[in-house]
């Protein structure tokens, strides 16, 4: 009996020890949970079952909450419920579509109608936000079949600090062929009408090209208020050394219709000259400089189509040549008078002594004058020749310096 009692007691102690061991493992290791649940289901203790149920609920709650969100550096991204298919890498687009890159979803659409750009804040109208590099294209209504005369590219800007209108003649494109060789020698004259400053503004001549590049800037001193009542004219000519220069076309710009307070980039079609400018005539003369003798020789050859200054429709012209140093008149010489002749021929040489070191400061003013015996002689037109002059005046001076000892002749259009 004693032995049986001892065996039963030992069995009870073993059961208690085993139960206690399983209880500690259950609290420290969730992996034993299924085994512990099976073992605890056999236990009739209500406290043990209640403790197990509450613990299971807490564990399940922790597992559920840990899958709801995760963190990325500088950004918190919420995970969608498992039943949905949205990607957690990027948020869905406002339209509900998941396709496309992040840049496409976050940028303003560039595809729109009527020139509008659609965005989340509404329609953006680009014409309300002017840019400094906008290009203005001036197109004219075509009446019937009009010959294409090409295009002219220029920039306009008013300088408020110096009170000047800056005109940058950049280039011309697709000019017509004016010479027998299938090319042209174009240059551009710029006029501001009405203009108190009667200075001639003319680009240099570009030889044998139908697409000339000028890149020359001209300044017209005026106020911004006066500019609103003025018109800018660009006249493109074809240069001819031995005859009158041909007009290719013109561009007319009414300045009150363009905002020149900022730089305006303009392309315009050339139009036939609608208003014929007053023709004063052309003058042909040659220049030569002899360094050893320090002598400048001007040979006045002839003139063509001079403006009629007398009542009988003719003129009595002569030519006066003035030598200027830094704009100051030093000497002047003149030819003989040709009576009643609008196409006179002189072939007279006028000589000036100029030191070589002073040549870069010199210029010539060549004036055609209508002689009047009883009254005051009237100026028909003039032209300026020198290193700082514009257009053909500068070109002729440079040709003389490069071909010393040899006379270089050139036609010059007279201006008032």
Fold topology:
Blueprint: H1 2-28, H2 33-41, H3 46-66, E1 69-72, E2 75-78, H4 102-106, E3 117-119, E4 122-124, E5 135-138, E6 151-159, E7 164-173, E8 186-193, E9 201-202, E10 213-221, H5 224-227, E11 231-238, E12 246-254, E13 264-269, E14 282-290, E15 295-304, E16 317-325, E17 328-334, E18 345-353, E19 362-370, E20 378-385, H6 392-402, E21 408-413
Parallel strand pairs: 5-13
Antiparallel strand pairs: 1-2, 3-4, 6-7, 6-13, 7-10, 8-9, 8-11, 11-12, 14-15, 14-21, 15-18, 16-17, 16-19, 19-20
Written overview of the protein:
The structure is a single chain. The protein has 416 residues and is of the alpha+beta class. The chain has helices spanning 2-28, 33-41, 46-66, 102-106, 224-227, 392-402; strands at residues 69-72, 75-78, 117-119, 122-124, 135-138, 151-159, 164-173, 186-193, 201-202, 213-221, 231-238, 246-254, 264-269, 282-290, 295-304, 317-325, 328-334, 345-353, 362-370, 378-385, 408-413. Helices cover 19% and strands 35% of the residues. The strands form 6 sheets. It has a 5-stranded mixed β-sheet with strand order 5-13-6-7-10, with no helix packed on it. Strands 9-8-11-12 form a 4-stranded antiparallel β-sheet, with no helix packed on it. A hairpin with a 2-residue loop joins β3 and β4 (122-124). The longest helix has 27 residues, at 2-28. The N and C termini lie far apart (152 Å). 22% of the residues are buried. The model is unreliable at 24-52, 61-71 and 74-133 (pLDDT under 50).
């Amino acid at each position: 009996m004693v032995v049986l009692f001892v065996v039963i007691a030992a069995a009870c102690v073993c059961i208690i020890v085993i139960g206690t061991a399983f209880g500690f493992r259950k609290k420290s290791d969730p992996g034993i949970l299924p085994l512990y649940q099976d073992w605890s289901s056999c236990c009739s203790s209500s406290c043990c079952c209640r403790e197990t149920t509450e613990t299971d609920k807490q564990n399940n709650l922790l597992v559920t909450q840990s899958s709801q969100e995760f963190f990325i550096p500088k950004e918190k991204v919420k995970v969608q419920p498992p039943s949905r298919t949205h990607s957690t890498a990027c948020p869905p687009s406002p339209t509900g579509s998941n396709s496309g890159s992040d840049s496409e979803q976050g940028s303003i659409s560039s595809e729109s109608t009527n020139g509008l750009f659609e965005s989340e804040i509404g329609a953006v109208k680009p014409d309300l936000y002017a840019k400094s590099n906008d290009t203005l294209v001036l197109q004219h209504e075509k009446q019937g079949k009009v010959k294409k005369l090409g295009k002219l590219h220029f920039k306009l800007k008013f300088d408020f600090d110096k009170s000047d209108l800056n005109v940058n003649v950049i280039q011309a494109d697709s000019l017509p062929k004016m010479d027998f060789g299938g090319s042209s020698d174009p240059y551009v004259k710029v006029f501001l009408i009405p203009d108190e400053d009667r200075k001639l503004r003319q680009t240099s001549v570009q030889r044998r090209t139908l697409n000339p590049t000028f890149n020359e800037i001209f300044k017209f001193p005026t106020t911004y208020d006066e500019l609103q009542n003025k018109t800018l004219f660009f006249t493109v000519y074809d240069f001819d050394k031995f005859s009158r220069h041909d007009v290719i076309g013109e561009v007319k710009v009414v300045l009150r219709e363009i905002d020149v307070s900022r730089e305006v980039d303009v392309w315009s079609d050339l139009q036939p000259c609608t208003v014929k400018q007053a023709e004063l005539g052309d003058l042909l003369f040659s220049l030569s400089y002899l360094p050893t003798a320090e002598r400048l020789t001007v040979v006045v050859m002839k003139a063509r189509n001079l403006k009629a200054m007398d009542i009988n429709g003719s003129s009595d012209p002569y030519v006066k040549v003035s030598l200027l140093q830094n704009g100051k008149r030093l000497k002047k010489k003149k030819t003989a008078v040709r009576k009643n002749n609008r196409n006179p021929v002189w072939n007279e040489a006028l000589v000036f002594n100029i030191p070589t070191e002073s040549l870069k400061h010199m210029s010539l003013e060549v004036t055609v004058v209508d002689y009047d015996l009883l009254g005051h002689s009237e100026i028909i037109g003039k032209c300026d020749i020198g290193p700082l002059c514009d257009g053909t005046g500068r070109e002729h001076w440079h040709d003389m310096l490069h071909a010393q000892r040899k006379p270089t002749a050139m036609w010059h259009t007279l201006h008032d």
